[in-house]
Amino acid sequence: MAGLRYSVKVYVLNEDEEWNNLGTGQISSTYDEQFQGMSLLVRSDSDGSVILRSQIPPDRPYGKYQETLIVWYEAENQGLVLKFQDPAGCQDIWKEICQAQGKDPSIQTAVNISDEPEEDFNEMSVISNMVVLPDCELNTLDQIADIVTSVFSSPITDRERLAEILKNEAYIPKLLQLFHTCENLQNTEGLHHLYEIIKGILFLNEACLFEIMFSDECIMDVVGCLEYDPALDQPKRHRDFLTNDAKFKEVIPITNSELRQKIHQTYRLQYIYDILLPVPSIFEDNFLSTLTTFIFSNKAEIVSMLQKDHKFLYEVFAQLKDETTHDDRRCELLFFFKELCSFSQALQPQSKDALFETLIQLGVLPALKIVMIRDDLQVRSAAAVICAYLVEYSPSRIREFIISEAHVCKDSDLFINVIIKQMICDTEPELGGAVHLMVVLHTLLDPRNMLTTPEKSERSEFLHFFYKHCMHKFTAPLLAATSQHNCEEDDIAGYDTSKNCPNDNQTAQLLALILELLTFCIQHHTFYIRSYILNKDLLRKALILMNSKHTHLILCVLRFMRRMICLNDEAYNNYIIKGNLFEPVVNALLDNGTRYNMLNSAILELFEYIRVENIKSLVSHIVEKFYNTLESIEYVQTFKGLKIKYENERDRQSQIQKNLHSVLENIVVFRGTIEEIGLEEEICFMEDAGEAVMPPLEDDDEFMETKRTQEGEAVMPPLEDDDKFTETKRTHQEGEAVMPPLEDDDEFMETKRTQEHEDKVDSPKRTSSGDFKFSSSYSACAAIGTGSPSGSSVVRLVDHPDDEEEKEEDEEEKEEDKEYETSPKKKPRLSS
């Protein structure tokens, strides 16, 4: 390869640490007798003089940068750069250098210069100062294209320097003049080079260059250069389209020339971005960020100019609300307003607020309400998009307008009900308009963007309004589709009467949208949606759709039920249990068979969630009703896990019942003993306090019986001349003792008990002869103060034989009730 020569530019670092161009010449690697080794020799193209003669010592570090640069230092602050025109020539010389140094060129091909010591290499400054564009001529277009395209793999300083050269030297207008020359000469090669140059300049992402390229004088020539893509067999005539086919239509005459020019420029810029430039890759996305910003800036300026022209906007809305406006004219006005809303996304929040206030004052919402009920599909679609823009920006203002209508409009004429009607009546096969309007409803019903102030709560006010005036209209298609009367008798087209659910694709999509929003409501409107679901039996009706042939609709029903169960609300759980609403889900699982698909996974996940969260009421219901049917499913452990949860809970409840029964028995057994102890303590306390009742005199014939209060306290004894004891009165306390008579008393007075404790009092024992035997704690000595320590003042509780019979009957009745409650009702036969 010693005899090969390649074109190269030589740069040297001077004393001021600036890089000077020594000239362009032909380089070769030859054996130098003077150095006794290989050297690099560059001779000038102009006069053949030697520009560079450099030895290749074995220890000198060389660096290959990009595909056309070789850099090295011969001494401190004496750097040299070879810039090759042809990458192949650079590679060949690089191999010669590596061969002379005994190195492998494949290893050294991609040298990371930043990894070398800073004192050895300073290539960044080399490249930054060596970007020089040749004169703008036809024979240099290839060099210009190489420089522009190669600069993207260089540091950002290279791109900035190139942009500075293009701006200051008026390079772009010169290039565009060459474009006309090449086009006139039909110089295809030159046109291909210009395509690469102009595309590269756009990817420089410099706003100062965009100002030049997108001016009225240059923009169409830029479009012309981008027509000649080397990848195309024939150039595309984009200029013809922009000039002849694309017509600028003014719905209202625009008198502002600056505004008109800005609209034209923005349209062409958007055309270049969307049509002419290739879609940037993930690594090139930032190359066009400034162009995107440039377009956004233009849009913001256009909206600001229109906003200031109140007469222009007033005329637009006046024609929109005019009933006599022709549909074609109305469509044009709506498309203009749609573009205005789209452009407004580029505004800052403060400017958006001002624009929205202007539109509200001009009556945008009443105007939209008028056009949304038109028969023209294009008009309705445009109105839906505009409505989505407005609701997304300020949902609170839209809600305020909707609520204000309730005082002056019927339910069917409310703005929100008009939206619901248009969503339901959408005739597009893919329901594009319905999807737009569903987004509008979703935003309006989202409590997270509702305001709450000390004066009022927007959430409660609007949700109360919606569930009262609108919810029945929103769910009407769902209720109609699941109505047995409609499906079987009316024979509506699109309904499968054998399965009692709609199988029309468009109807299924609409029902799926409705179910998705209802699922959202369950999560965020807990009280309102719960009342509505329970009153309308909505889940049962939705589960009819489990028989649909559309799997996506069945999955929507499952998500609806899953969200309900996820709340772990006992009202929902009881509703599901009493209605046996798991049966359609189980049937769907069995009908799906052994297919492992989304439906199978969704149903199993529903039962698995119940198992993991251990929702006890649902676990018991599922095991008792469906375990015999589902126990054969063993490829997941979900249903066995449910049975284990059920049995553990049953054992726990049984243990609790046993413990409670034991406690109650202990209370009954020790009740008398407790009362005895309490009475003895009370008597001892009274004796210690000197408040004991005096014994009667010896000559008294009778004593009056003492009276006790509800707490069992003693009262004053009767007078000495009383003939009989009065009957002691008892309070509501059970087990109070009757005071015993004295030894010489002839008879006892029967104690009186209150009516409400008749079933709870202690009964005396009945002897074999049928008499009652009282266990008295007082003896004769007790009457005079020498009581027996083992005496008892409480009548013990003993079961009568009749009572035992009554208890046995009660137990039998309870057993029957328990069997009736636990025995499962006869359920419909599940599909096998």
TrEMBL record:
Its cellular-component GO annotations read: nucleoplasm; protein phosphatase 4 complex
Q: Outline the segment boundaries, as ranges, of region: Disordered.
A: 708-832
Question: Per the record, where are the segments of Low complexity compositional bias?
Answer: 769-779
Question: Any idea where the Serine/threonine-protein phosphatase 4 regulatory subunit 3-like central domain is?
Answer: 143-647
What Pfam family is a match, any one? PP4R3
Q: Which residues form the PP4R3 EVH1-like domain?
A: 6-101
Q: Where is the composition biased (Basic and acidic residues)?
A: 725-735, 749-765
Gene Ontology BP terms: DNA damage response; regulation of double-strand break repair
Q: Which domain of life is it from?
A: Eukaryota
List all Acidic residues biased stretches.
801-819
Task: Identify a single GO molecular function assigned to this protein.
Answer: protein phosphatase activator activity
Q: Which family does it belong to?
A: Belongs to the SMEK family.
Q: What is this protein called?
A: Protein phosphatase 4 regulatory subunit 3C
The source organism is Pan troglodytes
